[in-house]
Design brief:
This protein has two helices and no strands. With about 120 residues, the protein is mostly helical. The chain starts with a helix and ends in a 7-residue tail after the last helix.
């Protein structure tokens, strides 16, 4: 880098005056590179904004899905609880029915007392 600067300074002050032309061309090149760098940075900022928007939308969608899953989980828990209560009710009814059948069978098996 230092060598390029020294060569540019030597050409700038040379007798033929070609140094001024080199300096102007070098200035235009620097200006062009600066503009391209600014455009590239603006494009990167724009891309970052688009990515941030996409991430925000994805986050909102994920949040909605999580809420829906949580709601479905609560519904499934309620259904499971209800099914368990129904099963216990059926078991209790089965026990009562068995007791009734046992009583009927016991009465049928008892000898009859006829009063004749």
């Amino acid at each position: 880098m230092d060598r390029i600067a020294l060569e540019a300074a030597r050409l700038l002050f040379s007798e033929a005056g070609a140094g001024w032309i080199v300096a102007v061309l070098l200035g235009f090149a620097c200006l062009h590179l600066y503009r391209e760098t600014v455009r590239a940075q603006e494009a990167r900022i724009g891309d970052a904004g688009v990515n941030a928007t996409a991430l925000e939308r994805a986050s909102q969608a994920n949040s909605a899905v999580a809420l829906a899953i949580e709601s479905r989980t609560r519904v499934l828990e309620d259904l499971s609880r209800l099914a368990s209560e129904i099963a216990h009710g059926v078991d209790r009814s089965d026990e009562r029915a068995r007791e009734k059948f046992d009583e009927i069978l016991r009465r049928l098996s008892e000898p009859r007392h006829e009063g004749r």
